[in-house]
Design brief:
By secondary structure, this protein is an alpha/beta fold. Helices cover 47% and strands 16% of the residues. It contains 17 helices and 19 strands. The chain has helices spanning 22-40, 56-64, 69-87, 100-115, 174-183, 191-202, 231-236, 238-241, 268-282, 313-320, 322-332, 343-372, 385-406, 410-431, 433-439, 441-462, 467-476, and strands at 6-10, 14-15, 44-52, 93-96, 119-129, 134-136, 141-143, 149-151, 159-168, 188-189, 208-209, 211-212, 220-221, 224-229, 260-264, 290-293, 296-298, 301-302, 339-341. Strands 1, 2, 3, 4, 10, 15 and 16 form a 7-stranded parallel beta sheet that branches. It is elongated and about 90 Å long. Bound molecules: ligand ME8. Ligand ME8 is lined by residues 12-15, 23-24, 26-27, 52, 235-236, 263-264, 266-267, 295-296, 303.
Length: 516
C-alpha cells in the first residue's frame, strides 16, 4: 500500500432505462476533473462510475423493448460505458448492480440492518413513482388538471401500491441524522441543499419501505426471496461493493469512506438521508461529502425523450471537440446551479476563452520562440518587476485552484486560471517581444521565457479540465511526462531545452452558413 492520502470519488450510477445525454455526462465530468486533479496532486485516487440496473423502471423498459431485463441492461449499460471514451473520462472502474459481488454486498448490508433491529416486516400502502423509484406521502402528491396524481406540481406520476414490505426504521434516525449534519458541516453541498435536507429531516421521518413483492427484478431479500430489495437500497450500496464490502480486508477498502459522492439535485434525499442512516445502522463509516449538481436544460427546454431534444455528448464532441465541451460545461454554470445548454453560448466560449485568449497566447509565444530562439526554451535573463508580477500570479494559481476544487467550484477555478491568461496576454502586448528582436534580444528572450513558464504553469492546471489539449501544449514546451504532476509545479523550464514545432491547439469555430 502506498501510504499516500486516498481520494474516492463516485458518480451517480445511471439507470439503464434511458440512453445517456449531456445531463448524465455532466456529473461524471465533474468527478473526472476531481479525480484527475487529485491524481496530479499526489493522491491515491479511486474514481467509480457505473449503471443501476434493477427495479421496476428497468423491468418495464426491458418489457417495452421485448428483451429480458439482463439483455436490456447489458445493451444500455454499454452506452454509458461508451461515454467514457466520448468524454475522455478516467474512471478506475465501472460497476454494474447486476454483478454477483454486488448482490453479496447488498445482502450482507441487509443482514447488518436486521441484526441492528432496524428492519421489520409490514405492509406498504401508499404512493409510488416508478420513474423516480420513490415512495411519496399523501401530502407530497397532488392531482393535476388532467386528473393524474403527481409527486408535486411538475413531478412524475404516482400510483397506489399496496403490498407486503420490509421496512427500515428510518423514523428512529431523525435526531442522529441532525446531529450528524451538525457535526459534519461539509457533508451536504451546496448550502441550499443542506438546508433543504435539514428541514426535510426536521419535518419528521417515516419508516422506509425497503422491499417490493410485485416484481422480481432485483436483489432477493435474504431468507425471504419473494421480496426483492428496494432499488435505492441496492443502488446506494454500490459505493461500498466497489471497495469489497463486506470484506473489509479487501485492499480497496482503504478508499472507504468516500470523499465525494457527486449526485443530481433530484436524488439528494436518498444520498443525504437514507444512505447515512443505513450506514450508521450497519456500523459502516459515512461518506464525507455529497455534492448536488444542478440540472441542464437545452435551449431553454427540459431535456426529455418525448421532446427528442436530448443532447448526445458524442454528437456534440464530434462537432466541437471533447475538450471544448468539457470546458464549457464546467465554466458556463457554477456547479450546483441549473444551466441551459445553448449552442451559441458554447461557440462564444470556445472562440473567446479558448481560441482567442488561451490558444492565441500559446500560439503567439511559441511561434515567436520557434522563429527567434532557435527552437529552444529561451534564455532566462534578469527579471524585472513586471516579469516577477506575472510569474507570481501563475505560481499562486495552484493553491487557488486546489481550494476551489475542494469546494467543487469548478467555474471559479477556471476563472482564476483565465485571469492569469488575460494577464499574460496583456504582458505580451506591453512587452512587445517582437519589437525587442532588434533592440534588445537578451530582454526579448527573458520576456519569452517568462511567458513560456507562465503557459507551463497555467497548462499544468488546465490538465484535469482539458487533458488532451493540455498534453499537446505541454508537449510543445517539452515538459516531460514526469514533470506534469503538481509536485513539479515549481520545476521551471530549463533554458536551452529543444522544443518541437508549435501547432495551434484551439482553432476558432466558424458556423457553417446554411444555404437558404
Ligand atoms: O437517479 N441535467 O439515475 P438516473 C443534469 N439510478 N443532470 C441530470 C439530468 C439533466 N438534465 N438528467 C438526469 C438515478 N441527470 C439513480 C442514481 S445513485 C446510487 C443512483 C442526473 O439515470 C440525475 O440528477 O435517473 C442523476 O444524478 C443522474 O443523472 C442519474 O440519473
Amino acid at each position: 500500500m502506498s501510504g499516500r492520502s486516498t481520494f474516492y470519488v463516485t458518480t451517480p450510477i445511471y439507470y439503464v432505462n434511458d440512453v445517456p445525454h449531456i445531463g448524465h455526462a455532466y456529473a461524471t465530468l465533474a468527478c473526472d476533473v476531481m479525480a484527475r486533479f487529485k491524481r496530479l496532486d499526489g493522491y491515491d485516487v479511486h474514481f467509480l462510475t457505473g449503471t443501476d440496473e434493477h427495479g421496476e423502471k428497468v423491468e418495464k423498459a426491458a418489457e417495452a423493448a421485448v428483451l429480458s431485463p439482463q439483455a436490456y441492461a447489458d445493451k444500455v449499460s454499454q452506452s454509458f460505458r461508451d461515454l467514457i471514451g466520448a468524454m475522455n473520462y478516467s474512471p478506475d472502474n465501472f460497476i454494474r448492480t447486476t454483478e454477483k459481488r454486488h448482490q453479496v454486498s447488498c445482502q450482507a448490508l441487509w443482514g447488518k440492518l436486521v441484526a441492528a433491529g432496524d428492519i421489520y416486516l409490514g405492509k406498504y400502502a401508499g404512493w409510488y413513482s416508478v420513474r423516480d423509484e420513490a415512495f411519496y406521502a399523501d401530502d407530497e402528491t397532488e392531482v393535476g388538471a388532467d386528473g393524474k396524481r403527481r409527486a408535486g406540481p411538475v413531478g412524475n406520476e404516482v400510483e397506489w401500491v399496496e403490498e407486503p414490505s420490509y421496512f427500515f426504521k428510518l423514523s428512529a434516525w431523525g435526531d442522529r441524522l441532525l446531529e450528524f449534519y451538525e457535526k459534519n458541516p461539509r457533508f451536504i453541498a451546496p448550502d441550499s441543499r443542506r438546508n433543504e435536507v435539514i428541514s426535510f429531516v426536521k419535518g419528521g421521518l417515516q419508516d422506509l419501505s425497503v422491499s417490493r413483492t410485485s416484481f422480481s427484478w432485483g436483489v432477493p431479500v435474504p431468507g425471504d426471496p419473494k421480496h426483492v430489495m428496494y432499488v435505492w437500497l441496492d443502488a446506494l450500496t454500490n459505493y461500498i461493493t466497489e471497495c469489497g464490502y463486506p470484506d473489509t480486508t479487501n485492499p480497496l477498502w482503504r478508499f472507504w469512506p468516500a470523499d465525494l459522492h457527486v449526485v443530481g439535485k433530484d436524488i439528494i434525499r436518498f444520498h443525504c438521508v437514507y444512505w447515512p442512516a443505513f450506514l450508521m445502522s450497519a456500523g459502516v463509516a459515512t461518506p464525507k461529502r455529497v455534492f448536488a449538481s444542478g440540472w441542464w436544460t437545452t435551449e431553454g427546454q427540459k431535456i426529455s425523450k418525448s421532446l427528442g431534444n436530448a443532447i448526445d455528448s458524442a454528437a456534440v464532441t464530434a462537432e466541437f471537440g471533447i475538450d471544448p465541451v468539457r470546458y464549457f460545461l464546467l465554466r458556463e454554470v457554477p456547479f450546483g446551479n441549473d444551466g441551459d445548454f445553448q449552442r451559441r453560448a458554447l461557440i462564444g466560449r470556445l472562440n473567446a476563452d479558448l481560441a482567442n485568449a488561451y490558444g492565441n497566447l500559446c500560439q503567439r509565444v511559441l511561434s515567436i520562440v520557434a522563429k527567434n530562439c532557435g527552437e529552444r526554451v529561451p534564455a532566462k535573463g534578469t527579471l524585472v518587476e513586471a516579469d516577477v508580477a506575472l510569474l507570481d500570479r501563475a505560481k499562486g494559481l495552484l493553491a487557488i485552484v486546489r481550494s476551489e476544487l475542494d469546494e467543487q467550484a469548478f467555474h471559479r477555478a477556471l476563472i482564476s486560471i483565465w485571469e492569469v491568461i488575460a494577464d499574460a496576454n496583456r504582458y505580451v502586448d506591453a512587452q512587445a517581444p517582437w519589437a525587442l528582436a532588434k533592440t534588445d534580444p537578451v530582454r526579448r528572450d527573458t520576456v519569452l521565457w517568462v511567458l513560456a513558464e507562465t503557459i507551463r504553469r497555467v497548462t499544468l492546471l488546465v490538465q484535469p479540465f482539458m487533458p488532451d489539449s493540455a498534453a499537446k501544449i505541454l508537449d510543445q514546451l517539452a515538459v516531460p511526462a514526469e514533470g506534469r504532476a503538481f509536485a513539479s509545479f515549481d520545476r521551471e523550464l530549463t533554458s536551452g531545452t529543444v522544443l518541437p514545432k508549435p501547432q495551434g491547439v484551439f482553432p476558432r469555430f466558424v458556423e457553417a452558413k446554411v444555404a437558404s
